[in-house]
Design a protein that fits this description.
With 299 residues, the protein is an alpha+beta fold. It has helices spanning 15-23, 26-34, 41-59, 92-99, 129-137, 207-215; strands at residues 6-11, 66-71, 84-90, 106-111, 143-146, 149-153, 158-161, 164-168, 175-181, 189-193, 196-199, 228-233, 248-252, 257-261, 266-270, 278-280, 285-290, 295-298. InterPro entries: ATP-NAD_kinase_N, ATP-NAD_kinase_PpnK-typ_C, NAD/diacylglycerol_kinase_sf.
Amino acid sequence: MSLAPRAVLVHRRTEYEELLARHGTHGQAAFFLSSRGRSIDEVARHHEDTRQALREVAAAVPLTWRSTRVERADLDRFLFAPEDVVVVVGQDGLVANTAKYLSGQPVVGIDTAPGRNPGVLVRHRHADAAALLRAATAAGGRAEELTMVEAVADDTQRLIALNEIYLGPPSHQTARYRLGDDGENAPGEAQASSGVLVGTGTGATGWLRSLWLERGSALPLPAPCDARLLWFVREAWPSPATGTSRVAGELARGQGLRLTVESDRIVVFGDGMESDALELTWGQSVRLGIAERSLRLVI
């Protein structure tokens, strides 16, 4: 007998809740903001809108389903099950934060602040939650398979991201490494830079796009479902020992970019989640490429 679906509602603390955690009371938070020329009213109103959306989405879960909630800070400790339907209630970035912990579960994005969020990944309103939950489990339900990027280290550590993966120094120091195509016999080009960014078509609306624009790149940006990645080296420094001939490129499925560390420490993290990063030391290598899994986003 198969289990009933479980709706997993993913959310994060609002700005108002973060202010209360820091200052203790509404009055103290209001005083702090007013002393800096800001009012707490807008922050409190956004908090209530978010909580109301979360309540309405929870009420839309079918009575025969199971349900639970998980906060963003607890995602790395939460165990998603195959029968889960994941409902992200919040911003676009929260979908990206959740994606790395999934393995094919359908995702519904609910926008709690229409007009404030771009709505690239949270495309729906909370009033549509009941219909979306039914569609997520129906045969032939409409969904997009969004390409993801992965980093696999030589010690089997693995990291997956929806927008981009960044490799670089843990501080403002320079990262030193060798960069080359995966599988080539040559050791790759020795480089010194502030890091390497490898992004997807979903990430082409954010950090990847800013680098693409800054470089005036002729490479076409991928679409979210395209099996193609772009990569850029940030601020590569030419010297007698380091080069700048490989600072941008693209990767198709089956292709990889290999980075071998030649400094004390390099961190690798995805979608801004620095708290869940890989750490590589001198001599280790990591391969970047298209992940086998994708994000199934209900549309």
